[in-house]
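Figure 2 data, in text form.
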Amino acid sequence: MPDLGLLQWPAMVVTVVAAWLVASERPERRNAGFWAFLLSNVLWIAWAVPAAAHALVVLQVCLAALNIRGAIKAKRDAQ
């Protein structure tokens, strides 16, 4: 089984790339950033569960919920 400690590095990179994309003026990049943030949430949770980092798991679930809420509001406002 691979060392799950290494999973934090791709999670960090995906999080930074997602933030970069969400800050874009182009809607397609912002949309890609939304999906990248959801991927980063999954990666962080995959790292946090075996590490017993329970607060990080809760944080990632909350951030995912806020991200989904924001995407729904943005889509509604664009109509």
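Caption note: Residues 4-78 form one domain.
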